[in-house]
Amino acid sequence: MNGSAQKAAKKTDHQAQFDSLLPAEPYTRRSFIATAVGAGFALAVQPVSAQTVIQTDSEGLLAGVIKVAAADRELPGYRAMPAGRSKLPTVLVIHEIFGVHEYIRDVCRRLAKAGYLAIAVDMFVRHGDTSKMTSVQDILAGPVAAASDAEHMSDLDACAAWAAKNGGDPQRLAVTGFCRGGRTTWLYAAHNPQLKAAVAWYGPLEGAPSVRQPKSAIDLVGQLRAPVLGLYAGKDQGITADQVEDMQAALTKAGSKSRIHVYPDAPHAFHADYRPSYRKDAAEDGWKRMLEWLRQNGV
Could you tell me which of 186, 182, 206 has the C-alpha nearest to residue 195? Predict the structure, then answer.
C-alpha cells in the first residue's frame, strides 16, 4: 500500500462520526438554491433536511450577530435573549465543526425563549471559515486540527465576560456544546471555576494527545469544577459504548455529580434537526433533560 492509500485508509474517530452525516449526493449550487430552508446553514451540510429542521422565531427576543473581544481579535458570533431584561442566566453555546450557522443560531433562540441569554462565537475563526467550506474532511484536517484547546478556553472566557456586561448574570453561567463542541464543554467545565452547569451533547471523550489538544475529557474527570450532563448515542460510530462506560466509571470513581445518559437507538448528532441523523424523540428528551439540569444546578 503506497503512502496515499495508507493515508486514505486511516480514519479518526471524528471522521467516523461525520461520515454518517454527509449528504447522499454531492452538494451543488442548484441543490442549495432549490432548498430555500438551507439558507444560513454551513455549506458542508447541504442539502438540509427541510422536513425536520426547526425554525424558531425571534419575537420577543433581542437576537442577532455580535462581535466579542477576545485576547487577540474580535470573534464573530450570535446572541439571543429575552428583550428588555437583564441579569439573565447565561448559556455559552459551542458549535460543532461547522461554525455558528443557522442551526446553532436557532439553538440560541430556543434557549432565549426559555429565559436565557445564549451566546455562540466562531471557535475556529483564526484558522478559516468552516461555514463556507464544502468538505468535512478539509474542515477536520484544517481548522479543527489547527485550533487549540487553550484558544477555546480563552474565547469562552471572553464570551462569559461579554455576556456579564450585556444582560447576563455571571453568577448563573452554564455551557452546552454539540459534537466537537461537546468535547470542549467537558474541558470548559474543568477550566472555569465560575461555571455552574454544563451539558455535553455526544462530545468525544477520548483521543490521542497533541500539542494543541493535550487532554481529553476523560483525563480531566478529577478536575471538573461544574457538574456535566453527557447526552450520548448508543449507535454512535465514533464514540463507542466502551468509551462511554469508561467515562461513567471514571466519574463514579471520582465522586463526581456529573452523569451520562445514553439513547440506545440514536446515532451521533441526534439533536441536529437539519441532518438525516436527527431523532425527534431523543432530541426532545435531551432538551428537557438539559433545561432541568440547568435549573437543578442554579442556572
Answer: 186
CB 128 within 8 A of CB 119: no
Residue 179 designated active-site? yes
pLDDT for residue 261 is more than 70: yes
User: Is residue 106 among the annotated active site residues?
Assistant: no
Q: Which domain holds residue 220?
A: 49-122+148-296
Q: Bigger pLDDT: 219 or 30?
A: 219
Count CB-CB contacts under 10 A for residue 236: 25
pLDDT digits (tens, 9 = 90+) for 18-57: 444 444 333 343 333 333 455 799 999 988 988 899 999 9
DSSP-derived letter for residue 46 is: P
Indicate whether 42 belongs to any domain: no
- The answer to whether residue 16 is domain-embedded is no
Q: Which member of 95, 122, 179, 273 is catalytic?
A: 179
| Active-site option among 122, 155, 236, 273 | 236
Q: Is 268 a catalytic residue?
A: yes
Query: Looking at the 3D structure of the chain, how many domains does it have?
Result: 1
The reply to whether 11 falls in a domain is: no
37 belongs to a structural domain: no
User: From the candidates 14, 101, 268, 271, which is the catalytic residue?
Assistant: 268
pTM of the entire structure? 0.88
